[in-house]
Amino acid sequence: MVSMATHEPAGAPLEIGAEIELDVTGIAHGGVSVARHEGRVVFVADAIPGERVRARVTDAKKKSFARATTTEVLDASPDRRPHVWSEADVSRDPEARAGGAEFGHIALQRQRTLKAEVLTDAMRRFGGVELAAEEGEDLAETLADLVEAAPGDEENNGLGYRSRVRLHVDPETNAVGPYGARTRRVIRVDSLPLANADIAQIAPLDDLMPDVATVDLVAPSADDPRMLLGMVGERTRAGAADPVRELVEDRGFIVRAGGFWQVHREAPALLFTAVRDAISDLLEADRFDPAAGNLDLYGGAGLLAAAMAEAAGPGLKVTTVESDEAATDDASENLSELLGGLAVTARVDRHLAELLKSAATVRDRIRRGTVVLDPPRSGAGGEVTAQLTQLSPANIVYVACDPVALARDTKTLRDSGYELTGLRAFDIFPHTHHFESLAVFERE
Ligand SMILES: C[S@@+](CC[C@H](N)C(=O)[O-])C[C@H]1O[C@@H](n2cnc3c(N)ncnc32)[C@H](O)[C@@H]1O
């Protein structure tokens, strides 16, 4: 039942719309903080651990926990900042706040510490891994350094980094804007502070766009910016046939304007370098075989296969596996100098199922090989992780955008005889709760 905002008397059951005072004690996965109200956990948005806030209950269906959104900060954290996006500020009604910058009220360094806490907590609870402090440092210092900032973000306060932005069109008013925080209601905004200058320039924030459902703004690093319109009722993805050029360090890549590419301008180079370095370390330890059955799963346009080749040299044998046919075409093009490179269009689970049925010689080459995988947010999942453990490659380099999915898969891999030998994390989504991790597993 929806009620008007009231001050909840102690002991009364929580109702949607009720306003309660909360002492915020921790951070949870998903960009919300944790508090307790009369024994019940409350996940509260737009707060910072350590604060006392007034919050409006938005979900009270479950007995064990409720959800709420901060409406007033009663005792502010020293890390609270004016929101980088005025349309997402806590002074606005929660229903009118823009979405996609849920950490924008927190100092950048604290954002990274909170992300590190989420990663260590997930690894402990779901992965069975206790991340220890570096020698001579306490855990707080180690946590502060665990999630690495992308180059330039300190100087820019983490703004202007996005080379891809999706906006939506309100079906009733035809107005263009982001979805609201935690809603699918289009919010009108005057600016897009996380977007880079090219996107800010072409964003149709004042326009009305009848018959359009989505507006994708794409600013490739070595090509003209694009506005891709997804029409109402149309199923084909806008920009799927529009190749654009991206530069990663000095290396050129062709990708579809409407296909997958990392959104932070520095993220392709950061992940390329991190994977290249992980492979170099394995090579140095004599654990990487360039001639084995190496795989780049969820390979997109071949960015990480190219990183493997940069470490291992032009003799590398590697197969990228990707479900989007246009991305596979681009991967073939991007890896054309690699004689032992092969790009396959397939779902990863189906491709691995085929490998599991293949001849002993093929299975043996996979066993000697290294698998790089970079799944979408849902993670590789139980089936793919189980298939990987059966194929049993020598090393697995796991790039993950969801720390809980990574932690769950870590547990399966460790239970199957893999040791977690390296873990890094990158803050390539400042002012949001998202971040990327890279974990290296070696078969014992
Ligand atoms: C996080 S992106 C990584 C792409 C690439 N590694 C990169 O860094 O540019 C995940 C990719 O997996 C693809 N994908 C999603 N589900 C898949 C599946 N079940 N099998 C194969 N590819 C899949 C998506 O199309 C997307 O290109």
Describe this structure in words.
The protein has 444 residues and is α/β, with parallel strands linked by helices. The chain has 3 domains: 19-80, Nucleic acid-binding proteins (OB fold (Dihydrolipoamide Acetyltransferase, E2P), Beta Barrel), CATH 2.40.50.140; 101-159 and 239-444, Vaccinia Virus protein VP39 (Rossmann fold), CATH 3.40.50.150; 164-238, no CATH class. Helices cover 25% and strands 26% of the residues. The chain is built from 10 helices and 19 strands. The protein has helices at 108-125, 139-146, 197-202, 267-284, 303-312, 325-334, 348-356, 360-367, 381-391, 403-415, and strands at residues 19-27, 33-37, 40-45, 52-59, 65-75, 147-149, 164-169, 176-177, 212-218, 226-231, 243-248, 251-256, 294-297, 318-322, 341-345, 370-373, 395-400, 418-427, 436-443. The strands form 4 sheets. Strands 6-18-19-17-16-13-14-15 form an 8-stranded mixed sheet, sandwiched between helices. A 5-stranded mixed barrel has the order 1-2-3-5-4. Strands 8-7-9-10 form a 4-stranded antiparallel sheet, with no helix packed on it. Helix 1 (108-125) crosses helix 2, helix 1 (108-125) packs parallel to helix 10 and helix 7 runs parallel beside helix 9 (381-391). The longest helix is centred in the N-terminal third of the chain and has 18 residues, at 108-125. The chain starts with 18 loop residues before the first strand and ends with a strand. Residues 1-11 have low confidence and may be disordered. Residues 260, 262, 271, 298-301, 303-304, 321-324, 327, 347-348, 374, 376 line the site of S-adenosylmethionine.
